[in-house]
Amino acid sequence: MEEKPQVLQPINRLERLGRSNTSQKGGKFSINDFEIGRPLGKGKFGSVYLARTKEGHFHAAIKVLFKSQLISGGVEHQLEREIEIQSHLHHPNIIRLYTYFWDAKKIYLVLEYAPGGEMYKQLTIKEKFSEPIAAKYMYEIADALSYCHRKNVIHRDIKPENLLIGANGELKIGDFGWSVHAPSNKRQTMCGTMDYLPPEMVSGQAHSAAVDLWAIGVLCFEFLVGKPPFERQHQAETYAAIKEAKFTYPEYVKRGPRDLIGKLLQVDPKKRLSLDGVMNHSWILAMIETRQKAEKQQQLEKTASLRNH
Q1: CATH topology of domain 117-293
Q2: Which residues form the Protein kinase domain (predicted)?
Q3: pTM
Q4: Which residues make up each annotated binding site?
């Protein structure tokens, strides 16, 4: 563990954000205020570790970013934007950014710990999710994105790799690196992951919050099938398929989810189903009811078993 630095040297634009970088003791946080545990994940500019505060033993995840890599990658502004956005989002299906601090070489983001781990790993292990699980996740992500959009925040990079699973099995959006605060609701930057890009981005047109609607349509397909709908051998083929919303369903995907996915994967952003429409879609509501009944039955059986013993 590093010694507590004598001088904190923020990189570029992060300096003015440092006003919130104070603990209840009135001093600056440092890595020495935490016990660092096992690694949780690795990214382009650093790694994430399980951590615990020495005072109060509060668990968190700490993202450790190297300043030199951020500067050479030209992403200081992107990090500043990520911090500004995520620190103001308080929703049960969004990972909280509690605070951040820095030393001479690194920046540390203190984040909510999600014990269930990465959604991508769970999907890889299971290959695909059951309809009730997929519907539950779709409801939760639609609820979280509805909250973001009300705050004029567009996520722009929804995919399983950026989703986590909380202590109660709930979905949590965990990465806001490509997010923007866009009150005008029109952006030009091409960003996100190839398989999840909407037609308007692929075509180089301005985009709006409707990019998130397209992304959750792709996500729902991947939840149920195990791979995204526009995955092709070559990038040009993927882009061509996206522009025309051209894909096919495996036979086992039923009418309900096909209807939802089809209403989200519309080439015209204005025709995509709204987030309220997702949460109130007949398939989503039916699957949630099915899941709730199954959980209630399990609880009754558990109670009866305990009585018998």
Answers
A1: Transferase(Phosphotransferase); domain 1 (1.10.510)
A2: 34-284
A3: 0.85
A4: 44, 63, 112-114, 161-162, 175
